[in-house]
Amino acid sequence: MVTTGLTHHTYPLSKLLYLSSTLALPHALTIFNQIPNPTIFLYNTLISSVLSSTNRKCETHLAFSLYERVLWDKTIRPNSHTYPSLFKACGSHLHGLALHAHVLKFLGLAYDDFVQTSLLNFYAKYGKLGVARCLFDQIRNPDLATWNSMLSAYGSGVTSEEEDTSVSMEALCLFTEMQKNPLVKPNEVTLVALVSACANLGALCQGIWAHVYVLNYNIKLNYHVGTALIDMYSKCGCLDLACQVFDELPERDILCYNAMIGGFGIHGYGHKALQLFEKMKFQRLVPDDVTFVVTMCACSHVGLVDEGCKVFESINEDYGKEPKLEHYGCLIDLLGRAGRVQEAEEKLKGMPMKPNAILWRSLLGAARVHGNLQVGEIALKHLLELEPETSGNYVLLSNMYASISRWEDVKRVRKLMKDHGINKMPGSSLVEVNGAMHQFLIGDKTHPWSKRIYSKLEEVGKRLQQYGHKPRTKEVLFDIDEEEKEDALTYHSERLAIAFALVASDSTAPIRIIKNLRVCSDCHESTKLISMIYGRDIIVRDRIRFHHFKNGTCSCRDYW
Predict the structure, then answer these.
(1) Does residue 277 have a pLDDT over 90?
(2) CB 3.0–4.6 Å: which of 78, 137, 242, 529 could bond 234 by disulfide?
(3) Over the stretch 100-135, which tens digit does the pLDDT of each residue have?
(4) Which residues have CB under 8 Å from 276's CB, separation 6+?
(5) What is the secondary structure of 392-444 as a DSSP string?
(6) Terminal Cα-to-Cα distance of the chain (whole angstroms)
(7) How far is CA 218 from CA 152, 175, 211, 222, 547, in A?
(8) Which positions ≥6 away from 210 have C-beta within 8 Å?
(9) DSSP reduced 3-state for 547
(10) pLDDT at 486
(11) Residue 532 in contact with residue 551, Cβ under 8 Å?
(12) C-alpha distances in Å from residue 87, one per residue of 69, 80, 124
């Protein structure tokens, strides 16, 4: 190139820079620094090449240094090819905002869809889904990559359970819009985002449609699609279909095993989860951090305390790794759920790192379930320091005081919430009937079938009384009389969802419900009886696990 004079031409130089940067970055920089007046095209090539390097941390700094040289060079200006790579490399939200300002400064409002998609991905990465969607809506003819970017954005950046539901709904609506464009055909990335949204919502019909689409259009059932389908069927209450997908996968990586172990766990099959954990090790797959988490959680759901503790110990003893915060969180939950609250507290205090809010909340939840007020108050004190604005922390302690009729303390905690401007997240339940999702809040009367639902609730209440059900009014955490407490229990969100399903769905179809909070003991007992009285399988996914109600029994065996 030197002898033929090609080093004076931009295009061959860009090829040389790209190749050199992939083999020896210092050599590429040496070549670049010898170019008398590098064009913006060459700068863009080198910035992009540098950021595709494996040593991302070091090269990010170098890329932005090159960008700074562009800004100082009065003979060139950044263009639409300069920014996409830089947005991917942004290490903080503030850096990205500054870069966005530069886009507006140098490109104005007339930048192309390539830059717009990069902006979309950046804002989605930092949880700014509203901004990301606004940017998406400004793109006239989004291509498949742009659709996938927005759909995938809805699968990440969720900060609360309430957002989880609404964002997943948005993902399904967006996919429906995408289908109206005949020029855009879904691929593996699209299907993973769609199936993940179905998993969050428990939208089985839409999830099955996605699976059929994969089969009909010969979309490759790779690790990512297979893992998403396993997770979806598990979270929709169809563990047998999840197992079928797992067994049919031609190859399985650690992600597939993690999804299947997690599925066994939330359905209460702790022994099967442990068996699969052992099988995975036999296949010479090395467990990752998530593997240990889902396996310990599986043990926690069914009270396999000793087995769960052995998994925790194996992290260091068998694999030479130091347990992380999430592993200690599983250990605290495992011990606390089994009633070993004092031991859980000792483990938490003896951790080599500082416990985070999740661990203290797990301890507070265990203290509440097992009535250990002293530990509960200690846990809340730490939680208020770490997360003073999280409503669940206050609610757990308030509920603990209410369960032992300490109403003055209940008022004190609720006043504390009011003073901080904190509102309790309302209980809600989703139920799928004939392919449509219906949401209910406690005491909800906004549904078009409201009259029929409440009429059915009255009938269910009478049938429950005939079968000897006595409402567990201790679950009503207000200082009111017993009759009012019984009424309050009747209108819990899952009761409304069940009543609607009894009225609106086929009498032989399973009733599938997703609840955003832990199911209360009275609703748990009532649902067992309803499954027997009406001869319906009722599958409830609360914030902790699945409950399969059939013929008056529950799969959790009252351990949740």
Answers:
(1) yes
(2) 242
(3) 999 999 998 777 888 988 999 899 888 888 999 999
(4) 257, 260, 261, 264
(5) HHHHHHHHHHHHTT-HHHHHHHHHHHHHTT--PPPPEEEEEETTEEEEEETT-
(6) 71
(7) 22, 19, 11, 11, 35
(8) 191, 194, 195, 198, 229, 232
(9) strand
(10) 45
(11) yes
(12) 17, 12, 12
Does residue 14 carry a pLDDT above 70?
A: yes
| CA separation, residue 144 to residues 85, 150, 184, 227, 293 (Å) | 19, 10, 6, 22, 35
Mean pLDDT of 138-151: 90
Phi then psi for residue 542, to 5 deg, are -95, -170
Phi/psi zone of residue 519: left (φ > 0), alpha (ψ -120 to 50 degrees), beta? beta
3-state secondary structure labels for all residues of 172-221: HHHHHHHHCCCCCCCCHHHHHHHHHHHHHHCCHHHHHHHHHHHHHCCCCC
- On whether the CB atoms of residues 478 and 403 are closer than 8 A, the answer is no
280-308 burial by CB neighbour count: b if 16+ within 10 A, else e?
A: beeeeeebeebbbbbbbbbbbbbbbbebb
Does position 476 have pLDDT exceeding 50, yes or no?
no
Structure tokens at 27: 């050599």
Q: What is the pLDDT of residues 405-433, one digit of tens each?
A: 777 887 887 787 777 777 777 788 999 89
Which among 405, 341, 332 has a CA at the least distance from the CA of 375? 341
- Sorting pLDDT into bands at 50, 70 and 90, what band is 327? very high
- Within 8 A by CB and 6+ apart from 326, the residues are 289, 293, 358
Q: What tokens does 431 get?
A: 């139920």
The three-state secondary structure class of 548 is strand
Question: What is the residue-averaged pLDDT of the chain?
Answer: 87
Domains and CATH numbers, the chain: 330-425 (1.25.40), 429-554 (no CATH)
Per the confidence metrics, is the pTM higher than 0.85? no
State the Cα–Cα distance between residues 285 and 520, nearest whole angstrom. Answer: 39
> Which DSSP helix (H) or strand (E) runs through 15?
helix 10-23
pLDDT of 489 reads 56
The continuous run of DSSP H or E covering 101 comes out as helix 93-107
Decide if 82 contacts 67 (C-beta within 8 A): yes
- pLDDT of 163 reads 60
The first and second tokens of residue 89, run together, are 């490399």
Comparing CA positions, the residue from 116, 160, 115 lying closest to residue 134 is: 116
Determine the average pLDDT of the residues in 377-388: 84
Residue 388 has pLDDT above 90, yes or no: no
